[in-house]
Each structure stands twice: as structure tokens, then as C-alpha cells.
Amino acid sequence: MSAVSHRPRRRRGHQFPGVVRVTVPMPCTANERIDHTSRIGEVTGSQRLDRTMSESSNGLGLRNIILCAGLSAGAWFFFRHFEISGLDQLSLSPKSGEYEASSDGPLAGHLDQWPSRSMMPAQASLSTGGDPPRVSPASLSGSHRSLAANGNLRIASWALGGFGPEKFRNPEVIGRLTSIVQEFDLIALQQLRASERDLMPQWIEQLNRGGRRYEYLITDPSHDGGDQMGFLYDSQQIVTDRTQLYRVADPERRLTHPPMVGWFRAAGVDPKLAWTFTLVNVHIELPRARQEIGELPAILSAISADGRGEDDIVVAGLLQADDVYLNATLAAQGFVTALKGTHTDIFARHQTSNLLTHRGKTTEAIGRAGVIDFLRLHNLSLSDAEQLSPYLPVHAEFSRLEGGPR
Which of 116, 162, 228, 298 pairs as cysteine with 367 (C-beta 3.0–4.6 A)? Predict the structure, then answer.
């Protein structure tokens, strides 16, 4: 890890030089995803179920009672593990999105594994002062204690599908959104429409009921056609320097939404030992996905050279591409995806969101990542789930200590 001995300088905007402009981008229609995997666990082919039952002339007896019990158990198993698609031709496929359980909290059964990284000793960290009281795992309360029992940080990303006044004023929707966000220490949000001045403060008030201390950072609604990006973070777990917040300068408008860049430090440990990192919030529009993903290598190079001396860069966002495409695009830069082979939409069709870290530099990555499938977690219909978002939140786990576990 590179030594950081000075406070980062404030940067108002950063251009990414040296980018070759693509004059004839490959087409990508609104119905096309950059997707190299079919639906996870999908089974094709038609199956026709024909059952015939005959009753014995002896009437209802013990045999019929046992038969009914068996049919009930079989029906429960069928609908628990399979879903039916198609009307003219029946096809059965196992329900996907069931990940290997590795915690006893609300995320149990919803975690996916990603390759662990080798650990390097820490050399330096950055201190900005004003650190909140140190928090031991035992002092964390509620569901958050089950998530952070090992003292690690959970960083997430979630595209909210146009979060604005309508969703906030729906008690069921805002209640579920709040409970899901509270599972994370820091979350990058996309597709916000929070132009009303009091909308985010009111949501923060709900998030902090029960003793949490969430704060937010959000982009100007006058840009990007009203679509905003933001960060929500629990200030008991994460410290930020607001003067280091900026958006990548894009004078040639190669990107629909210029990335939002923030600097953060883990709280709850000695500031001299705490992990510091840059979080890059990315929102890529589907029709321009191939072109905009092609700009990511130059963007990440510009961010790493922005003069702040921070070597740990975490990318989170709505990337509109799967891990195969992203890993191939960013292989030369050393970035790898946290999620692999996992759908991240409520329809279980596509991998659209992810987190990326540098394979060699960000040794604080623990090697655990996953998706919260709130549709199944809350037993929602597709229409009810879509009121929250058509996308699932994705997350990864990181050590609080610079360089990783000691």
C-alpha cells in the first residue's frame, strides 16, 4: 500500500485525458443487455404433467388421507423450488438467486462468494480528525450486528429506479427501502429523483430511528435530466471529507452521467490504521452501454491520478454489463468484479449491477459479496417488487484496517 502522509487536496473536477473517441459505436438497443450468461440455473424444454387419480369404492380411508398429505407436501416442494413460465407450453425452471448462506442475519442464503485476495501489510493511512467513538462489534444492535459481527464494512450499490416523492410517500415502499439500506455501512445510489429539498433529509430521519447516524451526499438535480446519484453512509462506521467529493469532468459529453467520486475512511478503529479509499459511483445508460463501458479504463486512470494519493479505488454502480464483459474490459487496469454469474434484477434475467476493486491494490477486500433478493426475502409479487426497484442491491465486504486483517 502506498504511504499517505498528507491531507488530500481539494479537486473541483477532473478530466480523463487520452481517450480515443468512438465515432461508430457498436449498436445496443433498449432490449439488449451486454450479457454473456443465460438465466442462472434455467432449465428449458416443455414438460406436460398428466395425473390420473381413481378412488377405491371403500370411501375415504387411511390410504386417501396419506395420499392427500403426500400431494400437499409435493405441491409445497414444487412451488417452493420451481416456477412455471409460458401458457401454451409449460416449462419448469428452478428458482434462482439462492446463494450460499454464510451469516445468520437477514442476508443468510443470499450471499455469493468471490475469490479471496492475498493480504499485504499496511504502511500508512490518512487521518482527518473528529473521529466518532470507536464501535466494537458487540455494541452494534439489531440486524446490523449480525452483518458486522466480524467488524468488517459492507459497501453496496443500488439503482432505485427513480426514487422520488411518489416512492417516499408510499409507507410500505419507503419502509422496505429503509430496512434494506440499513443493512449497509455505505451505499452508492443511482436513479434518484430527489429534487425536493426536504426529501433526503426526511429519509435520513427515518433511517436514523433507532440510533443509527446516516448522512448523505447527492449530485445536483439540474444535471443529467434530473437523474441523480448519491452516497448514504452511517457516520458511526464511515468518515468522509466532503471537500473531496467531485464529478469527473466530461466536456465532450461522452458519458450520460459523469461518475460521482467520494473519499472515505473506516471508523471504529485507530485513524492511523484505518482503511481509506475512493468510491466511484457509476450510472451507465443501456442504449450507450458499449460506448460508455469502453470509457471506464481512461476514467479510472484519471481518478487514480487526481493528485490525492489514494491507491484504493472501489467502483460501484449500474453498469449494464455482466462480469465476463467487465472483467475483459478492465483486465489491463487490474480491476475485477465482486459478483460473478449472479443476476441482479428482480426478473432473474440479467446481471446489471456490480462492484469492482483492484486485484493487487485493494487487499482490504475480504472476498465476500452478494445480492439481496428482496422479492423473495419479503415474499413480494413482481409488481410489488417493481415499486421498490427493478434492480437488486449488490454488496461486498471489506476490512476496516489498511492492508486487510492483521
Answer: 116
